[in-house]
Amino acid sequence: MGFQINTNIGALKAYNALSSLNAKTQKAQLRLATQKRINSVADDTSGFNVGKSLDQKVKLMQSAQGNVGSAKDMLATAESQLISIKDMLTQIKSKVADASNPAADKASIVNDIKAIGEEIASAMETTKFNDTSLLVSAGGSAPSFSFQTGAASTDTLTVNYATSTGGGDLAGTTSMTTAGSNVVAGVSDIVNNALGTDAGAGIGIAELTTSNISDLLTNIDLFETEVDDSLGAIGNFVQRLDAKDDFLTSAIANSQASVSRLFDADMATEQLNATKSSIGGQAATAMLAQLNFAPQAVLQLLG
Q1: Collapsing DSSP states into helix, strand and coil, what is residue 68?
Q2: Is residue 1 assigned to a domain?
Q3: CA 39 to CA 18: how far, in whole Å?
């Protein structure tokens, strides 16, 4: 030890050691209180940036997973109505078969078929998911829907089950003639061909009479093929959405694990650090007190 009394070097060093131990104790205690390893950017700048980026991607993927669920719900709605329409087409075919009976009341059969045709037109026109038409759209274009299915805005899936590229051709307009007129033209291109009055399209329901019932089958079969194709496309899209849902579930879990590893405190380790620093602080306090009195030894030289 030196014999300077103006500056107590030993006490200053003990004070610095005590300050450092107190800072470590506070940091460990703060991590225990917040359960977070990173409580400010200064704690781990690179880890903070990486963790926040991952956290953002997790939120985007969670939103995308919600979109996938909505897409599947929408497809289920369209599928249910298309199955119902297919059943109605089967009814029409059955009535056409009934009309082959010479004893059948063909006039009543014609009226029944026209009523079913109007209901098919109404079903296509009114099938909606949250006010969004699923089987027809304005302007004669086929309904097509784009969903973001990943973290990036470019990760999208275009659902176009009602177009030729999607398997069917249920493109349509919203200018359906009201029920009661026995006219079902104007619902969609294929409906016009199968159920309407388009020139050269063969016999449609609006042109149906007791003498041409059997001629209706050609266009009904065409329309049913389009319905079948659209149902198949819906099934394929649901399979793709299921795969995306599985991937998002896994990706979200893995990303959250990475965020946890960066941000969450190891409670056992931090408790050990807090205890160690606290004990060290107590020892440093005791030593600081002793070193503060050390210069008094110089007084013996002044006696």
Answers
A1: helix
A2: no
A3: 23
